[in-house]
Amino acid sequence: MSIISTEDIKALGKVGVLLGGRSAEREVSLMSGAGVLKALQSKGVDAHGFDTGERSLAELAEQKFDRVFIALHGRYGEDGSLQGALELLRIPYTGSGVMSSAVAMDKITTKILWLAAGLPTPRYAVIDASSDLDAISADLGLPLIVKPPHEGSTIGITKVAAAADFKAACDIAAAIDDAVLAEEFVTGREFTVAVIGSGADARALPIVEIVAPAGNYDYQNKYFTDDTQYICPAVLPAALTAEMQRIAVAAYRNIGCEGWGRVDVLLRERDQKPFLLEVNTSPGMTGHSLVPMAARAEGMSYEDLCVAILRTARLKMKG
């Protein structure tokens, strides 16, 4: 049963589903966008796909969309740059605005803000050419995680188990980013918390636990195999569930996210303490994606989720 009337569907107008793009996550975005487009059309929405990696902003303006659903991941779609263009074009869009999109895409800035607010996140170091890798590995301990702070979908991430491998891991990250982030490795269970809404109305959906083969939740296991197990709702004590949802919503609000998003959380094995990893402001919407899974646990279909997100599309800047 639809959560929106036929009249309300018509009121959404001509809708663009922005997909593809030019980031390292283009392949996933094409899958997400295809799913969203099919779902919206199945609900009677006048929806049209638009690949921002192949078509220009001038062409986007010519389409005269009444609103757009952003199904882009990574740079030039999730990092605030497209959001700024849409503000200039005065096209209402889904998800977070320019500033919060840019902040969430930068894992270093996100950590600085979370720590300032007293929110738990693994200890870290920013690596540059002058960094003393031996001192950093001694401080953070081994193993540690090395990642490009402006990419998603686990692209360019390396788990470093030996100090001798640290430099090579940094080189991998530096090849695709202008900064490198080294992060304390937290041993424990991996979860994600979908958040919908804005400000005081933001709320967490049921928590998803991710159980990947050998604990390796990489790009392949995220999107292209059925080897990863997902448990939703996650099996956790009620108090711990509430705490993880609380810090996820706090993390989302802290950087000004709105509409929808997904917060990744690690639960440390030795003391059951949760740690925030990152916020995704334009999460995946593929057949393996976790926000639709969490919504289903609340009884919301993929199609109704897409419509609900689309209805939140708006311009964030007055003028």
TrEMBL record:
Keyword Cytoplasm included in the entry's annotation: yes
**What keywords is this UniProt entry annotated with?**
ATP-binding, Cell shape, Cell wall biogenesis/degradation, Cytoplasm, Ligase, Magnesium, Manganese, Metal-binding, Nucleotide-binding, Peptidoglycan synthesis
Cofactor (UniProt):
Mg(2+); Mn(2+)
- Fetch the Pfam families from UniProt: Dala_Dala_lig_C (PF07478), Dala_Dala_lig_N (PF01820)
* Annotated metabolic or biological route of this protein: Cell wall biogenesis; peptidoglycan biosynthesis
Which residues take part in binding Mg(2+) 2?
E278, N280
> What does the record give as EC number?
6.3.2.4
Please state what class of enzyme this protein is: ligase
Among the entry's GO cellular component annotations, what is one?
Answer: cytosol
Q: Which InterPro entries match?
A: ATP-grasp, ATP_grasp_subdomain_1, D-Ala_lig_Van_CS, D_ala_D_ala, Dala_Dala_lig_C, Dala_Dala_lig_N, PreATP-grasp_dom_sf
The record's catalysed reaction(s) read: 2 D-alanine + ATP = D-alanyl-D-alanine + ADP + phosphate + H(+)
Q: Name one GO biological process term.
A: cell wall organization
Taking every annotated instance into account, which residue ranges of this chain make up the domain ATP-grasp? Answer: 111-311
Localization recorded for this chain is: Cytoplasm
The record places the active site at: E25, S153, S289
| Cofactor binding remark | Binds 2 magnesium or manganese ions per subunit.
An example Gene Ontology molecular-function term: D-alanine-D-alanine ligase activity
Provide the binding site for Mg(2+) 1: D264, E278
Q: Family, per the entry? A: Belongs to the D-alanine--D-alanine ligase family.
NCBIfam families xrefs: D_ala_D_alaTIGR, PRK01372.1
Please describe what this protein does: Cell wall formation.
Classification via PANTHER family: D-ALANINE--D-ALANINE LIGASE, D-ALANINE--D-ALANINE LIGASE B
> This chain belongs to which protein, by name?
D-alanine--D-alanine ligase
> Whose protein is this, by species?
Duganella phyllosphaerae
